[in-house]
Specification:
The chain is of the alpha/beta class and about 650 residues long. Among the domains are: about 240 residues, NAD(P)-binding Rossmann-like Domain (Rossmann fold, 3-Layer(aba) Sandwich); about 200 residues, NAD(P)-binding Rossmann-like Domain (Rossmann fold, 3-Layer(aba) Sandwich), CATH 3.40.50. The chain is built from 24 helices and 18 strands. Helix 15 packs across helix 17 and helix 21 runs parallel beside helix 24. About 45% of the residues are buried. GO terms for molecular function: dTDP-glucose 4,6-dehydratase activity; isomerase activity; oxidoreductase activity; UDP-glucose 4,6-dehydratase activity; UDP-L-rhamnose synthase activity. Its cofactor is NADP(+); NAD(+). It catalyses: UDP-alpha-D-glucose = UDP-4-dehydro-6-deoxy-alpha-D-glucose + H2O.
Length: about 650
């Protein structure tokens, strides 16, 4: 086929599969940065080697959207192509680690061949794709003769030698068939090895860097004479940029470099960067079942489109080393991946629970796998907030189910996750007391089981399954002090340590909040003295104080659920994480609320105040009084009303007696 210069192609709406993975995340970040007019939908099932943090530079862009899902789900793929009006696909999603393919070859077939087939069929059916870029590998060519100085051109025969490269070659055949049979506008790329920041450390360079950082030996398969070509991720991202805009439909493009290195050379270069003795730092281990000696590409075709490699090896390796030194915990515990011969079972199924979750997901694909982008699993059905969340989901047409398992029973949570297959988990379950927190003082074990053990169980199962958990917590873990005096307007920030221990309920909530900081998949929302427009609900703070014979009069931060619960749904969609003071800005006192109650609801209403000393005589546990700094939430949601304005708008105006 004769190549002709292609007109400059401009996509409108791109779907990038495997976008949270190594190469795809660099491509996605580059496109978002350089082409603000492009809308990009990032699809990733968040397998072990992908990480949402890889896409952090994109998250603030209004043209970026992340969808957690599997390309093997035909319903989901068809839905996305239509709902997002996709005209361009860049298909990176794949299982790529050769070592794993020797022990889990069927999974490679499922992901690499079947997943690609699902995408192609969706393109055929929806008839709206103008460009489909399929990302393959140099390994489909098989082994290159060590004596030749001529790289494999794109027209070379495909002779894969391991299960991984065989599945990639099979996927290529499907891409070619859909191009020829159905006219699908496809382009295929075949790339050399890539290195750089964000790469999961099952791959050679990050593995060696992390081992060197730990002072451990670098394991080399065989004698280390195998030759590979390495491109820095920035150069590869630029290559995909060029191919996207200038590539010719129906063509294949090698993304490669003529600069080759033995595996032993790579190990020695890393040892030099760390100042290690190569004789002591390197060890030789048993080789793979089959280990191609060399892959060598002819890259002239891509260079004719205007691409050039620009990152020197020594510079790129040093930048990569510096990144891993600054981000040693980017991937969490990767000790299994650093093994000389890692297997997917060691990496993904670190415990039986994780294995059960993953195995169930892979084997239970059925008609209940909804095409909706969002599906919430909600805990706390019989609770006030949990019930309101369900109603909100109904109103917003968000697919959801309530959890049926007890949070103290880890296996029952896992059953819920397997049954529902959610995109997010919302936890509004917990013990606050019957009828108030005084109950917790005499039921401490029950309080611990739910508020501490149950919450941690849920967070841990969610972490194993790569699920974001929105946890409705409490702000009743602080009390006014000399740094945050009453009436000063100085509120407690998210990073402040709890200082209120007056009730056992608050102790358990402070304890679990501190422990949850170790879970990056958790978003903690500190709710305070919740208020809603339902003045018949006895749990409503306004309803409570309007029925008390006496009340204290202290300004406090509070949460208007009618305004803030919809915000919690949006926070789930935005994948917000960490701790958030989930209250309206400012404070309001008991008397201010009751004055409004009198004005809007009951003109003849009267109440009596008493002080904290008098209150202490009629309650078992002390009560928290504080102001929380809501600046972080206000910055994320600038239209949020102050506490007084919100109460008037959402509570008193709708309930006003005429």
């Amino acid at each position: 086929m004769t190549s002709h210069p292609a007109p400059y192609y401009q996509p409108r709406n791109l779907l990038i599969t495997g976008a949270a993975g190594f190469i795809a995340s660099h491509v996605t970040n580059r496109l978002i940065k350089n082409y603000p007019g492009y809308k990009i939908v990032a699809l990733d099932k968040l397998d072990y080697c992908s990480n949402l943090k890889n896409l952090a530079p994109c998250r603030s862009s209004p043209n970026f959207k992340f969808v957690k899902g599997d390309i093997a789900s035909a319903d989901l793929v068809n839905h996305l192509l239509i709902a997002e009006d996709i005209d361009t696909i860049m298909h990176f999603a794949a299982q790529t680690h050769v070592d794993n393919s020797f022990g889990n070859s069927f999974e490679f077939t499922t992901n690499n061949i079947y997943g690609t087939h699902v995408l192609l069929e969706a393109c055929k059916v929806t008839k709206r794709i103008r460009r489909f870029i399929h990302v393959s590998t140099d390994e489909v060519y098989g082994e290159t003769d060590m004596e030749t100085d001529i790289g494999n051109p794109e027209a070379s025969q495909l002779l894969p030698t391991n299960p991984y490269s065989a599945t990639k070659a099979g996927a290529e055949m499907l891409v070619m068939a859909y191009n020829r049979s159905y006219g699908l506008p496809t382009i295929t790329t075949r790339g050399n090895n890539v290195y750089g920041p964000n790469q999961f450390p099952e791959k050679l360079i990050p593995k060696f860097i992390l081992l060197a950082m730990k002072g451990e030996q670098l394991p080399i398969h065989g004698n280390g004479s195998n030759v590979r070509s390495y491109l820095h991720c920035d150069d590869v991202a630029e290559a995909f940029d060029v191919i996207l805009h200038k590539g010719v439909i129906g063509h294949v493009y090698n993304i490669g470099t003529k600069k080759e290195r033995r595996v032993l050379d790579v190990a020695e270069d890393i040892c030099k960067l760390f100042g290690l003795d190569t004789e002591k730092a390197i060890k030789f281990v048993q080789d793979r079942p089959f280990n191609d000696q060399r892959y060598f590409l002819d890259d002239q075709k891509l260079k004719k489109l205007g691409w050039q490699e620009t990152t020197p090896w020594t510079e790129g390796l040093k930048m990569t080393m510096d990144w891993y030194i600054k981000n040693p915990q980017w991937w969490g515990d990767v000790s299994a991946a650093l093994h000389p011969h890692p297997r997917i079972s060691l990496i993904v199924h670190a415990n039986d629970d994780a294995w059960l979750l993953e195995n169930a997901r892979l084997s239970n694909e059925d008609e209940n796998n909804k095409s909706s982008e969002l599906k919430f699993l909600i805990y706390g059905r019989t609770g006030w907030i949990g019930g309101l969340l369900g109603k909100l989901c109904d109103n917003q047409s968000i697919n959801f189910e309530y959890g049926t398992g007890r949070l103290q029973d880890r296996r029952s949570i896992m059953d819920d996750v397997m049954r529902v297959r959610p995109t997010h988990v919302l936890n509004a379950a917990g013990v606050t007391g019957r009828p108030n927190v005084d109950w917790c003082e005499s039921h401490k074990v029950e309080t611990i089981r739910t508020n501490v053990v149950g919450t941690l169980n849920l967070a841990d199962v969610c972490k194993d399954n790569n699920l974001l958990m929105i946890n409705f917590a409490t702000g009743c873990i602080f009390e006014y002090d000399k740094e945050h005096p009453q009436g000063s307007g100085i509120g407690f920030k998210e990073e402040d340590e709890p200082n209120f221990t007056g009730s056992f309920y608050s102790k358990t909530k402070a304890m679990v909040e501190d422990l949850l900081k170790e879970y990056e998949n958790v978003c903690t929302l500190r709710v305070r003295m919740p208020i809603s427009s339902d003045l018949s609900n006895p749990r409503n703070f306004i309803t409570k104080i309007s029925r008390y014979s006496k009340v204290v009069n202290i300004p406090n931060s509070m949460t208007v659920l009618d305004e803030l619960l919809p915000i919690s749904i949006e926070m789930a969609k935005r994948n917000c994480r960490g701790i958030w003071n989930f209250t309206n800005p400012g404070v309001i006192s008991h008397n201010e609320i009751l004055e409004l109650y009198k004005k809007y609801i009951e003109p003849g209403f009267k109440w009596v105040n008493f002080n904290l000393e008098e209150q202490a005589k009629v309650i078992v546990a002390a009560r928290s009084n504080n102001e929380l700094d809501a600046a972080k939430l206000k910055k994320e949601f600038p239209d949020m009303l102050s506490i007084k304005d919100s109460i008037i708008k959402y509570v008193f105006e709708p309930n006003k007696k005429t």
